[in-house]
Design brief:
Order of helices and strands: EEEHEEEHEHEEEHHHHEHEH
Structural class: alpha/beta
Strand order of the largest sheet: 3-2-1-4-7
Helix content: 25-40%
Number of strands: 12
Distance between the termini: 23 Å
Number of domains: 2
CATH class of the largest domain: Alpha Beta
Number of helices: 9
């Protein structure tokens, strides 16, 4: 059976998924990235070889990665901090040279949050939806949007970086030079500063709030206020049918979604009494890999 492999490259792990053109999930697997070593891309080649040795050669291959992808999908054009090796790395050429294939195999590259939304729209929470927003809440805040059935990519490929919208003009600037962004208001990376060093993960913050800690509850409320304002702003801008929330913070479940609903609905601009559903992502940590595979399949079927 011809199939596609999607590889979602993260700082900690490389997620791989094998998917048929009809959406049958053939396998899922996780490998350690070892991003502390600059030669980690060579390990991607080794893991790919292992997968194809077990499951047979893939006809299509796609990559999901942090950073801003080039509009032509050849590589990541901008990536700061860890995983800097992905910047300007042409995966089609790199994997062809490394695996010594007789024929080059196109390997389209997509931002990881954009890939996650493609996966959710194909096989997850966004099936059958033409207008959708995804927010991935974790170390930072990733995002992506599908508008009128098409993934929003933008002029330079940076469209969908929803975590970098400004919520506070006087706030500290984030990695994209945005003051008081959503990412700084709810991302795990800023939590030690927001909690005066008391918390280092949102999981611990939420647990303390649920255990009746008033200071933790206050900080969690402030974080959710920022998220609610960001969501209603994005609803007003993009008019989605659905808002999907994924990432590590989303596993808080009702502790996230129930208070978020209470904060969003009073300030939501509703038309014809229609609220925009806010739902958890369904594909978990493999959404990006599945979306990368789907992106490769889409490229193969487009003229």
């Amino acid at each position: 059976m011809p199939y596609a492999i999607g590889l979602d490259i993260g700082v900690t792990n490389l997620k791989a998924a094998g998917v048929s053109p009809t959406g049958q999930l053939l396998f899922r697997q996780t490998f350690e990235t070892h991003a502390e070593s600059p030669d980690w891309p060579a390990r991607v080649t080794a893991h790919l070889a292992q997968l194809e040795s077990t499951h047979g050669p893939a006809k299509w291959l796609g990559i999901a990665s942090p950073g801003v992808a080039r509009p032509d999908g050849a590589s990541i054009r901008w990536m700061q901090g860890r995983l800097a090796e992905v910047q300007n790395l042409n995966w089609s050429r790199f994997l062809h040279d490394s695996t010594q294939l007789a024929e080059a195999r196109p390997v389209p590259v997509l931002n990881d949050a954009q890939a996650a939304l493609l996966g959710e729209a194909w096989l997850g929470a966004g099936q059958g939806v033409d207008n959708a927003i995804l927010l991935t809440l974790g170390t930072g805040v990733g995002g992506a949007a599908i508008v009128d059935g098409r993934l929003l990519r933008g002029h330079l490929g940076r469209a969908g970086h929803l975590g970098h919208i400004c919520l506070d003009l006087q706030g500290e600037k984030d990695i994209a030079n945005t003051p008081g962004s959503l990412e700084t208001k709810i991302g795990n990376y800023s939590l030690p500063a927001r909690s005066n060093g008391r918390f280092h993960s949102t999981h611990d913050l939420v647990q303390a709030a649920q255990n009746g800690d008033p200071a933790a509850q206050h900080l969690w409320d402030i974080s959710l206020d920022a998220l609610a304002c960001a969501i209603i702003s994005l609803i007003n801008i993009l008019d989605p049918q659905i808002v999907i929330i994924g990432g590590g913070i989303a596993v808080a479940g009702p502790a996230l979604f129930e208070p978020l609903e209470k904060k969003v609905r009073p300030i939501e601009w509703t038309l014809e009494a229609r609220h925009v559903p806010i739902v958890p992502a369904q594909l978990g940590e493999f959404a990006g890999a599945i979306g990368a595979a789907h992106n490769a399949l889409q490229g193969a079927t487009q003229p």
